Amino acid sequence: MRFYTPAAFFLFLGACASLTQEQCLNGDWRSIGYNDGVNGRLESYISRHFDACGKVGVVPDTRAWLEGRKAGLPLYCTPQNAYNEGRGGDSLSPVCPAEQQNMLFQAWDWGQEYYLITQEISVMESEQRDIERRIATELNTPPLTPEQLALLSSLNQRLNWLDREIYRLERRRIRYASVPV
């Protein structure tokens, strides 16, 4: 069993906090709010700053944080960012104005499609490697029995199908490689 020193424990706890002790003490709440806006944080996110900074006796300046967040949100609420969120497999934060929602969700869906196709390709490539490994370890020493020959044929057919599917998906993914205009 391992024992951690108190300093290591507090370092671990600090990693979970929304801000570092230095950021709390510096108190540039407009900049902190701006960065939170750029990252699509909800207004309720400031409660995490209250928790983190309360440990060092600092109270966040809510008004400056809200002003900064408001200034940062327009950078989050862009079609390119919505696309990037979808392409990264992330959800879109509900912080953008209602009149932008349709446009942003279309861009997010486009990025999400790219992400899902990439995931599907990754699964197929993993299956290919598994089959190739199996052929190399189980079916590489002649003479092969009739059952082994049938298995080898079946595995090669599966590899050919996977090659064609990966190629088809890669071609389809090209369509979603950038934000729609």
Describe this entry's structure for a reader.
With 181 residues, the protein is mainly α. It has 2 domains: 6-76, no CATH class; 98-175. It has helices at residues 6-16, 21-26, 29-38, 46-54, 62-76, 79-87, 101-138, 146-175. Helix 3 (29-38) packs parallel to helix 5 (62-76), helix 6 packs parallel to helix 7 (101-138) and helix 7 packs antiparallel against helix 8. The longest helix is centred in the middle third of the chain and has 38 residues, at 101-138. The chain is elongated. The protein starts with 5 loop residues before the first helix and ends in a 6-residue tail after the last helix.
Report the sheet-strand fraction.
Answer: under 5%
Q: What is the terminal-to-terminal distance? A: 57 Å
Question: Would you count the extended β strands for me?
Answer: 0
Radius of gyration: 26 Å
As an assembly, this protein is single chain
What is the helical fraction, as a range of percent? over 70%
The main β sheet shows up as: none
Low-pLDDT regions? 1-15
Mean pLDDT: 91
Structural class: mainly alpha
Total of domains: 2
Reading the helices and strands in chain order gives HHHHHHHH
**Which word captures the global form?**
elongated
How large is the count of helical segments?
Answer: 8
Features of the shown structure:
mainly alpha, disordered N terminus, 2 domains, 8 helices, 181 residues
Strand and helix map with partners:
Blueprint: H1 6-16, H2 21-26, H3 29-38, H4 46-54, H5 62-76, H6 79-87, H7 101-138, H8 146-175
